[in-house]
Amino acid sequence: MTDRPAPTDIAIHPLIAGRWSPRAYADRAVAHAQVVALLEAARWAPSAYNAQPWRFVVFEKAVDPAAFERAFASLVPFNQSWNVNAQVLIAVLADTLDAKGAPNANAAYDAGAAAMALLLQAHAQGLAAHAMSGFDAPGLRHAFEIPERFAALSMISVAHHGDARALPSTLAERERAPRARLALEEIAQFGGWRQPH
User: Fold this and answer.
1) Which of 87, 175, 187, 193 is 20 to 30 A (C-alpha) from 35?
2) Cβ neighbours, 10 Å, residue 91
């Protein structure tokens, strides 16, 4: 199942409506050129003062299986369970310091924008990509000697779409469940803030 457009109340661009976070992955290598295109999309994200604080550490199963396995080990057990066929893991980092060494308060926000560009590019390429917070950030930092100034924000797994029927039943159900979001009036207020009812 690769096509699951969001049931939006108002028409939005199909690329955005179509992007979702699958867990059913095929055990088939992702071409290195496709991975580079994901990073190129992220490179062109917006950032405060054009600081570009995002950094990515990329682990390709087909290129460096040992490094991939070390990165895979940082995932929490639940995420390991459905990522057995993941072909690429991408650690999303934010440089918490600016060029002068002062704290960059916008780093995580900007890195998130770059990660979203990467996810949209994956969807545009017909790939499955899923961002995860469930990983051992200190363990990843230690395993790959990532300097302290770089905050590990998330891990994105990438693969070709697989068959949801191969997932455990509870995850297969989630894969097919209707997509849902909070109502627009719950997330946006016009003209100022007011207390929710």
Assistant:
1) 175
2) 23
Phi, psi of 75 (to 5 degrees): -70, 145
Partners of 136 in the beta sheet?
none
Closest among 114, 110, 118 to 21, alpha carbons compared? 118
Give me the amino acid identity at 45. A
Who's near 150: CB < 8 A, 6+ residues apart? Answer: 55, 93, 94, 95, 96
Positive/negative CA dihedral, 46, 48, 51, 53: negative
Name the residue with tokens 């997330």: 187
pLDDT in tens, 139-176: 999 999 999 999 999 999 999 999 999 988 889 999 98
pTM above 0.70, yes or no: yes
The distance from CA 53 to its chain's CA centroid, rounded to whole angstroms, is 16
Q: How many CA atoms lie within 13 A of 94 on its CB side?
A: 19
Label residue 57 left, alpha or beta by phi (over 0 means left) and psi (-120 to 50 means alpha): beta
| CATH architecture entry for 19-176 | 3-Layer(aba) Sandwich (3.40)
